[in-house]
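Hi all, posting the design record for the shared folder.

TITLE: backbone redesign
STEP: 1 of 1
STRUCTURE INPUT:
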């Protein structure tokens, strides 16, 4: 913990944020209260708040609670004014029980957190707001589509016999397609007509959400390719998981101090769970659970089709470890890899030469896939830069050189 240096004529600010108002407080380098005031969450209010702080002295640090939620507006204004902004956590419950809670108290506590060195995390970049918006919209659309799919299946169970038997053996995709194009008006029976009308509505909702998800995926991928394309080159990392990693890190790698702190942030830091003669660790229940879920998704994908990971899983099973324990180890290792890629990304592998080299030797995609033991679609997507894995690229390039 680093304590802010004392310098005469300087002040430290603290801001408690809300939807319609912000409360600003100022303290001197010795922690003495200089004044506080409330301002509206408007451009004029932000300007007046910064002017209020500067009227007490030179602002050397500004602690803001909720820099990426209620405080995003004042955070942007402060950064535009070249102020050093720190993200402040909500006051601890023990402190609130002792000192009470009010907007001025919270604002002064934010300033004291900066002075004492407890608030060291930099504010998240504004660029992450667009990524979070697309990510949230996609997640809610996927959830709504899954709910529609479940409703269709449950509704068919209680449907009239003729409808249930007609659609019983269809796959999910064909079922949605068939129900979306059906004609309920052709059924004379009232129950069949109304039930089929409901099923058609659900199927059309499912189809519309699928199109919406595809559109959001395209926008999400385009945004990630502009900001951190190297993440999409990692095995098992898609646009959804890459976006979550960027959201968790805040878009600016300087917020991530150490690998251990990033692992704790993602809820993958091992927690001792030993007793007696048993020595083991378990997964942390804290941290960003969405980031933890993203790491879990990557781990499952690598356990299915990543040879090094499959070999690692086999070795751990031979040692008697259970699947949850193996997943804990994998997620911790992936968190380490993600920390390196977020702070020190590898250079672009440059796959533009692979396809011309293959075509120059009159080698088909099928022949290359068979020689490397990969699926043809993997070769095709690797050549187009849509699925770039360092191991696959190096193997493919070495094989092309000798083929």
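Okay, here is what came back for every position:
SEQUENCE:
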């Amino acid at each position: 913990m680093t304590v802010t240096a004392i310098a005469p004529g300087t002040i430290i600010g603290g801001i408690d944020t809300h939807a319609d108002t912000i409360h600003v407080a100022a303290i001197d380098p010795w922690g003495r209260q200089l004044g506080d005031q409330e301002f509206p969450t408007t451009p004029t209010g932000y300007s007046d708040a910064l002017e209020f702080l500067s009227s007490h002295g030179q602002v050397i640090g500004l602690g803001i609670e909720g820099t990426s939620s209620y405080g995003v507006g004042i955070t942007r204004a402060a950064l535009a004014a070249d102020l050093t902004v720190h993200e402040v956590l909500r006051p601890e419950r023990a402190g609130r029980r002792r000192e009470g809670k009010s907007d001025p108290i919270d604002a002064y506590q934010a300033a004291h957190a900066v002075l004492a060195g407890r608030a060291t995390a930099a504010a998240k970049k504004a660029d992450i707001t667009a990524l979070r918006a697309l990510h949230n919209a996609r997640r809610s659309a996927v959830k709504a589509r899954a709910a529609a799919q479940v409703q269709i299946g449950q509704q068919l169970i209680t449907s009239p016999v003729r409808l249930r038997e007609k659609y019983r053996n269809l796959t999910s995709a064909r079922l949605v397609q068939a129900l979306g194009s059906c004609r309920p008006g052709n059924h004379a029976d009232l129950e069949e007509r109304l039930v089929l009308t409901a099923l058609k509505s659900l199927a059309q909702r499912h189809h519309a959400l699928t199109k919406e998800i595809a559109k959001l995926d395209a926008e999400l991928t385009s945004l990630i390719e502009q900001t951190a394309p190297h993440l999409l080159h990692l095995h098992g990392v898609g646009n959804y998981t890459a976006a979550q990693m960027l959201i968790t890190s805040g878009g600016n790698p300087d917020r991530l101090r150490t690998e251990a702190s990033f692992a704790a942030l993602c809820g993958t830091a091992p927690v001792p769970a030993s007793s007696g003669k048993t020595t083991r660790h378990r997964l942390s229940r804290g941290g960003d659970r969405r980031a933890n879920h993203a790491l879990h998704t990557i781990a499952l994908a690598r356990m299915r089709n990543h040879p090094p990971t499959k070999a690692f899983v086999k070795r751990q099973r031979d040692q008697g470890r259970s699947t949850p324990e193996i997943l804990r180890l994998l997620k911790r290792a992936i968190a380490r890899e993600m920390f390196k890629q977020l702070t020190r990304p590898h250079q672009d592998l440059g796959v533009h030469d692979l396809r011309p080299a293959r075509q120059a030797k009159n080698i088909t995609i099928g022949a290359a896939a068979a020689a490397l033991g990969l699926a043809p679609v993997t070769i095709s997507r690797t050549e187009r830069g849509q699925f770039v894995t360092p191991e696959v690229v190096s193997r493919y390039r070495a094989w092309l050189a000798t083929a």
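COMMENT: The chain is about 55% helix and 10% strand.
Let me know if anyone wants the other runs.
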